[in-house]
Amino acid sequence: MAEDLSTVDSATPAGTDSIKADSGNAATKLRVLLVEDSPADVELLLLTLRKGGFEVTSDVAQTAEEFTSRVQTASYDLILADYNLPQWKGTEALEILSRENLDVPLIVVTGYLGEEKAVDYIKQGATDCVLKDRMARLSPSIRRALEEKRLRQLRRQAEEELAHKVTELARSNAELEQFAYVASHDLQEPLRMIASYTQLLADRYRGQLDERADKYIHYAVDGAVRMQALIQDLLKFSRVGRAEIEAKITESRAVVEQALNNLQVAVNDSGAVVSWIGLPVVMADSSQLTQVFQNLIANAIKFRGAEIPAIQIAAEKKDSEWVFTVSDNGIGIPAENWEDVFVIFRRLHARTEYAGNGIGLAICKKIIQRHRGKLWIEAQAKPGCCFKFTLPIAVSSPAAQKAHA
To answer: Taking every pair of C-alpha atoms in the chain, what is the biggest distance, in angstroms?
Structure first.
C-alpha cells in the first residue's frame, strides 16, 4: 500500500540540522506541488529546496486526478514532476496546465532521462530537466524559472495596459471625430446666415456710410467667409476618419488619370506637365487615393516657381509594399517644416500669397495612415518638393501585370 504523501510538512526534520540555506539572505517563500510517489524522493526535494534558500510549503500529487484537483483549488509557484509514475507520466501535467490555462513553471526531476526526451519535454513546455544525482542544479533552475515567470507576467501586464490604452485612444479619437463633425455641421447654418446678411449689408450700404464703416463691414464679410471655408474643411477632415475604407484591387494609373481630370482647369491654366511611370496595382480605396493624388498634384501647381510646373509620379516595390513618389520643381518646403505641413490648418505662407486653409496634406496623411501606410517628405537633388507614401501590394491580374511590365 502506497504511503499517503498528499500533504507534506516542510519543516526541517530531526537529524538534519546540518543542512542550512546556502544564502545568508531571507528565504524565498515557495509553494510547490510535487508530482512524486517516493517518500524518500519527496524528502530529498524538500531538503534540497531548503538548502537552496527557499521556505517551502508543499503538496503532493500521485495521479492525474489528484494533480488536476490540486491546481484547480490552489495556486502554486512551481511544480516539480517525476518523469514516470506507476499510474501516469508526471510530464502529462503539462497537458493539464495547458488545458487549465495556468502559467506555472514545471521542472522535470527524474533519475534518468535521455537528452532527446529532455529536449522533447522542454519543447512541450517544461522549464527544465534535472537529474536526481545532480540536485545542485535544482535551485538555480528554480530561480531562473521564477524570474522567467515574473518577466512573462510583466510582459502580459504591459500588453494588457497597452491594449487598454489603444482601445481608449481609439474611443477618444472616435469621440473627437464625432464632435468635430457634429460641431462643424451644426455651425454651418448660423454661420451661413451671418455671412449672407453681412454680405447683404455690404452690398446695400457700401458707400452710404463713412470709409471706416465700409472697412468694418468688409472685415466682417471676409471673416465670415473664411470661417465658412474652415468649417467646410474641418468637415472634410472628419469625414476621412468616419468613412469606411473600401480597400480593393486598384489601378493606381487610373486613379492618377482621374485626379488629373478633376484638376483639368488648373493644369491647363498653369501649363503643368504631369508624367508617370510604372504605376502598379495596389490595395486601396480608389476614391480616397484619388483625393491623395489630387491634393499632391494641386499643391505642386499652386506652389510653383518661375518655371512651368513639372510633376513626376513613380512607384517602387519594397518588401511587402509600394513606395510612391510625387516630385515637382516648385518652391519647395524648408526641411524644418516637413512635419508642420501635415498638421491641420498649419500654413507656411500668408493668405495674401497663397489661398487655402492648410487642410490638404493633413487629409492626405490621414488617408494613407488608414491604408496602413505612411506619408513623408524627402530631400531631392533638384529644387522643388518630393512627397513619398506607401501602400499595400495587391496581386494583379495577368493582363495588369503585362500592362505594367
So the answer is: 118
368 exposure class (CB count in 10 Å sphere: 0-12, 13-18, 19+): buried
User: Can you tell me the distance from the alpha carbon of 129 to that of 20, in angstroms, rounded to the nearest whole number?
Assistant: 24
181 burial class (0-12, 13-18, 19+ CB within 10 angstroms)?
middle
Q: Which amino acid is at 139?
A: S
Cβ burial of 200 (10 Å; 0-12, 13-18, 19+) is exposed
**What are the helix (H) ranges across 206-251?**
211-242
Task: Give me the DSSP letters along 139-183.
Answer: HHHHHHHHHHHHHHHHHHHHHHHHHHHHHHHHHHHHHHHHHHHHH
Find the DSSP H helices in 280-333: 286-302
Beta carbons within 8 Å of 343's beta carbon, 6+ residues apart: 358, 362
> Measured between alpha carbons, how far is residue 320 from residues 135, 203, 367 in Å?
51, 59, 19
Q: What are the C-alpha distances in Å from 371 to residues 248, 297, 333, 366, 376?
A: 11, 20, 25, 9, 15
Q: Would you state the torsion angle of the CA atoms of residues 358, 364, 369, 375, taken in this order, to the nearest 10 degrees? A: -90
Confidence of residue 276 (pLDDT cuts 50, 70, 90): very high
Cβ atoms of 16 and 62 within 8 Å: the answer is no
- Please state, in angstroms and rounded to a whole number, the distance separating the CA atoms of residues 296 and 327: 9
Strand partners, 106: 79
Question: Residues 364, 369, 371, CA angle at the centre, nearest 5°?
Answer: 100
User: Full-prediction pTM beyond 0.85?
Assistant: no
Other CB atoms closer than 10 Å to residue 316's CB: what's the count? Answer: 12
Lowest mean pLDDT across 123-137, 240-254, 292-306, 340-354: 340-354
The single residue listed with the C-alpha cell 467646410 is: 232
Contact 250, 394 (CB under 8 A): yes
